[in-house]
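Summary for the lay section of the report: proteins are chains of building blocks that fold into shapes. Here we show the chain for DUF1751-domain-containing protein and then a coded description of the shape we predicted for it.
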Amino acid sequence: MARINLPPLTRSLLVTLIAFSLINALLQPVRSTALGAITRKGHGSPYLCLVPGKSFKYPWTFVSASFVEQNVFGLLVTGLTLFYGGRYLERAWTSSEFAKFIAFASLVPNVLCFLLYVFFYTVSSSGRAINTTIQGGIPLQAAFLVAFKQLVPEHTVSIMRGVLRMRVKHFPALFLLANTISGVLFGTETAMFLSWIAFLESWVYLRYFKVSPLLTSAATNDGLTIRGDASDTFAFAYFFPEPLHTPITAVSDQVYNLLVALRVCTPFSADDIESGNEQAVARAEGGLPTIMTSRGSGRREEAERRRALALKALDQRLHAASQRGTSPMSSSSAGITRPAPAAREESRDGHIINTNGTTGNNSSDESGA
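The coded shape description reads as follows.
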């Protein structure tokens, strides 16, 4: 039997997920229906899951809640997410960077969702809000999809033996849409809140804070790093369908300008954007491992798509810049100063007096001419 090769942190996370889910099932056994182990929800132990009315006694639940699943279906989905996604990201980022990402992806959404339900309870005094169980791998799933959008947006995933083919860059929007519809129609609002919070939090972390090595300098072992990802293709609007780019960009730019004015984040410079675009091209050209074992032709097609997308974004930026300012030729020619011809005056004694103070003989000049 072939040995499954998993990086150490991914292996530990899988063991933690299975162990915590089994312990939770023992602490909160199913008594409702025969299918309860497959379909149940909202029966989490306060020792492992996040319950707003009780979790202040058990602070570790702010992290452990992301590794507890209530039913077999959730356990299967989160397990596959960690198996494939964790294996890929840990190898692409190293174990230490992957650990930081997991810490942010599990802790921050749970804390914010906890505060949201406390706010609901404060406003409505609803016992349901204070006793809601917050748990599951939804934050990890959303965060992994954002990371894949950054690393391999043009990678095509084939489902059902090629019947359904979809690029990775479309998965975050579909994930948010599915959880939003489910939250509104089927009452799974906790999953809806967690998915949106994790999506925004992981994008902010990868966009502005994560430190990555410069792939363009990896061959020379310069050890240079870059903070965040200022590439055009990782902008917030590019997570959604193209018809929505303009309105989303208008709103996100206003929020971004407000955060810059409040000094919450630092604006990107032109060099940052250029470096981010170079990073995106370097990833497309094979600087990172593939998600699945794929053929070289697939990687070449992915690289071509990413290069075309980067060139399109660059062309849009140049077009917008040319509309705001003057053309480079006019601005450069305006800065050229031509020396004025020296004014000459002829004195009465036949000498030529230049304005710079030199003198010359008129007859010699004429003969030389």
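Put simply, here is one thing we learned. The radius of gyration is 31 Å.
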